[in-house]
Amino acid sequence: MVSWLYFDMGCEVKMEILLQLQQIQNDYAGMIHVPFLTDSLSCGTMVIKSAEYVISSPELSKCPAPDKPEYAFIGRSNVGKSSLINMLCDNQKLAKTSGTPGKTQLINHFLIKSVTAQQATKAHAASQPWFLVDLPGYGFAKVSINARNRWEQMIEQYLRKRENLVNIFALIDARHEPQQVDLDFINKLGKWEVPFTLVFTKADKETQKVVSSNIKSFLERMRGTWQFLPQHFVTSAVKKQGRDKILQFIEECNTKIINEAASQG
Q1: What DSSP element (H or E) covers 211?
Q2: Which of 127, 194, 231, 250 could covalently link to 113 via disulfide, CB atoms 3.0 to 4.6 Å apart?
Q3: Which of 97, 103, 171 is nearest to 142 (CA)?
Q4: Cβ neighbours of 138 (radius 10 Å)
Q5: Domain count, the chain
Q6: Residues 163 and 229 reside in one and the same domain
Q7: Cα–chain center distance at 136
Q8: Same domain as 35, residue 73
């Protein structure tokens, strides 16, 4: 048997290399053993097999059947939500991007099919379906008061009553100092007891020093009303920063749901 010297490759190793090593190990079963491979693949990023638009709904009752795990993205207008969704799914045409704030006016569902990093090495691995949801933004979009009230009602109904909603990704523009409109929305999520994580966007649009300072300030402001701070991610749609960590988070949530369903079944 040929043994590889062990060294800690960590989760940042390119998946292409790991998958190639997995294939070599499979092809030469019993002859070549890569001891770090299993652990490295287990902490790798999920692989998205397909992502497709399903429907845009004007209200909660029109949404697809709540039979899959669901993850929704929301943020202030012009926060870079569509670009982030496209980056995560590796499809630049999935969510419509626009330079005009407030273009997203409905509850937009996308069906995602993914496999874990380990499953990606198998030819006929069953994919895990889940919903990704693009919600209308809040903030300074130039719309009528009636339209804004309708959006707010629609969003509140969805957030509070969508039974298969696993997590809200609340997007915050990392270029700016803490904005009260963001803090107010986060506090609403807390009041409604909706699970959420923070996603700081556009980290490439400012210096690292400015971005770090703005994130620190935002979290400090939250500490004034929150006993425990939520998990947060720092992202750049241009550089694909944060993609692996967000997808890993979703994968962990999906795995937990599957395991819980199996234990109850």
Answers
A1: helix 208-223
A2: 127
A3: 103
A4: 21
A5: 2
A6: yes
A7: 16
A8: no
Question: Could you tell me if 205 and 92 lie in one domain?
Answer: yes
Q: State which residues form the domain around 135.
A: 45-264
Measured distance CA(26)–CA(101) in Å, rounded: 50
Confidence bin at 116 (pLDDT 50/70/90): confident
Q: What is the dihedral of CA 216, 204, 248, 54, to 10 degrees?
A: 120
3-state class (DSSP) for residue 38 = helix
Residues near 191 by beta carbon (within 8 Å), at least 6 away in sequence: none
Say how far apart CA 200 and CA 128 lie, in whole Å: 27
Question: In 10 A of CB 127, how many CB atoms?
Answer: 15
Reported as a single tens digit per residue, the pLDDT across 208-244 is 999 999 999 999 999 999 999 999 999 999 999 999 9
Residues 129, 233, single domain; the answer is yes
The answer to whether residues 198 and 232 touch, using CB atoms and an 8 Å cutoff, is yes
Shared domain check, 125 and 170 = yes
| Beta pairing class for 107-115 and 47-57 | antiparallel
Place of tokens 């339209």: 147
- At 206, is the secondary structure helix, strand, or coil? coil
Any idea which residue has 């053993």 for tokens?
A: 33
Helices 180-192 and 145-161 cross at an angle (nearest 10°) of 40
Return d(Cα 46, Cα 13) in angstroms, integer. Answer: 14
Tell whether 18 and 51 lie within a shared domain: no
- Is residue 209 located within the same domain as residue 85? yes
Same domain? 89 vs 11:
no
Report pTM. Answer: 0.81
Q: What angle do CA 100, 106, 112 make, to 5 degrees?
A: 100
